[in-house]
């Protein structure tokens, strides 16, 4: 390494677009000292950088040769003929002038180096992005949360305005939209749709690489009218597959035509592989949790979940001073139906009644199979009068249902009896699940004793 006095003294004329990276490159060389820079604009980024490093700056390049006692190399980064002419006439044999073809070569070296540095920086940022996404997905406990993270990451990665994710229902052969972000069309996005042979969805799922449509208007191959309804002009769709199994599709959309680089599409493919594996694991956990709380026959909640949830809802009702209703429901003369038609037909009746209950009750109500032919419904934020109205709606829906063989029942049709109890009207103790169940059961017994196919509230005369 040269001593401080032996270092090459360099001056740069022109600190605009390329001057700053050139100066930074020279500043890293221990054998080079930048002694001065010149730029007509004192607001140029290179001027600010030079001042921070104690380097002489001037708007008049001629001052470099007046103020600086020694310049070994001067680089003309301006391309200005006036500057070039001055340097041609410069009578300083100790100063080497770099301009023209030589300056262009230096520029190319700087640009290539900067491009490599930018590419390395971009690669690191992309790797960190995928790593951070992986960490977030590992902590996602619900599939909708995981999918939201994935859609947001894809939108950021491609700088696109909208995105969505749909899950594949293998049993029904259809896609179901799970997450939608950035949509702004007049029509709502599709909620569910069949996978048609030859359609866009089938095409996306049949490929291992992202499907790209850079201009929807010029793509007559597929029906994309639902995308155009949202105002979209371009699309990237990534199939989500885990170990060969279709999980769903990740979409990113924009409201203008777009071009995509091979690197962008490669990153989307990596994101898709990461996303598919993470989402499939979360879905498996959700399915396992659902099986643990679901009655195998009727697909409503099971007895264990009912008891646990009833206690939770009672505590919540107590905390917020809200009412809570409970329905206990029994299928009338069910043993008679089983004896007449067999247990398989009896099971079909229970399955159908469970379906009717899910339709008749509200989304916030918790429908469960209590045991045998007995069901229960928890009615959050519901007083006794409202609970009676809901229970009668359910009773009527079952009575109007079509059950083969129901005409042989003692009432000439298949019906249910219902008992109602409410907190705090009937049961003032929020931590006693058994008390409110017992009260609703007593009301149910009264309905059956009074002739069945009716609703009775606790303490009714």
**Radius of gyration (Å):** 37 Å
Mean pLDDT: 84
Residue windows where pLDDT falls under 50 for at least 5 positions: none
Count of DSSP strands: 16
Largest sheet: 6 strands, antiparallel
Q: How far is it from the N-terminal to the C-terminal residue, by CA? A: 106 Å
Q: Which percent band covers the strand fraction? A: 15-25%
Helix content: 40-55%
How would you spell out the order of helices and strands?
EHEHEHEHEHHEEEHEHEEHHEHHEEHEHE
Strand order of the largest sheet: 8-7-6-11-10-9
Summed up, the helix count is 14
**Gross geometry:** elongated
**Helix-strand category:** alpha/beta
Which helices and strands occur, and which strands form pairs?
Layout: E1 8-13, H1 19-27, E2 32-38, H2 45-52, E3 56-58, H3 63-67, E4 73-76, H4 81-88, E5 96-98, H5 100-139, H6 143-158, E6 162-169, E7 174-181, E8 192-194, H7 200-206, E9 211-213, H8 225-228, E10 234-242, E11 245-254, H9 262-293, H10 303-320, E12 324-331, H11 334-341, H12 343-360, E13 366-371, E14 374-380, H13 384-399, E15 416-423, H14 433-449, E16 455-457
Parallel strand pairs: 1-2, 1-4, 2-3, 4-5, 15-16
Antiparallel strand pairs: 6-7, 6-11, 7-8, 9-10, 10-11, 12-14, 12-15, 13-14
Account of the 3D structure:
- With 461 residues, this protein is α/β, with parallel strands linked by helices.
- The protein is 45% helix and 21% strand.
- The protein contains 14 helices and 16 strands.
- The chain has helices at 19-27, 45-52, 63-67, 81-88, 100-139, 143-158, 200-206, 225-228, 262-293, 303-320, 334-341, 343-360, 384-399, 433-449; strands at 8-13, 32-38, 56-58, 73-76, 96-98, 162-169, 174-181, 192-194, 211-213, 234-242, 245-254, 324-331, 366-371, 374-380, 416-423, 455-457.
- The protein has a six-stranded antiparallel β-sheet, sandwiched between helices. It has a five-stranded parallel β-sheet with strand order 3-2-1-4-5, with helices on both faces.
- Helix 2 (45-52) links the parallel strand 2 and strand 3.
- The longest helix is centred in the N-terminal third of the chain and has 40 residues, at 100-139.
- The protein starts with 7 loop residues before the first strand and ends with a strand.
- The mean pLDDT is 84.
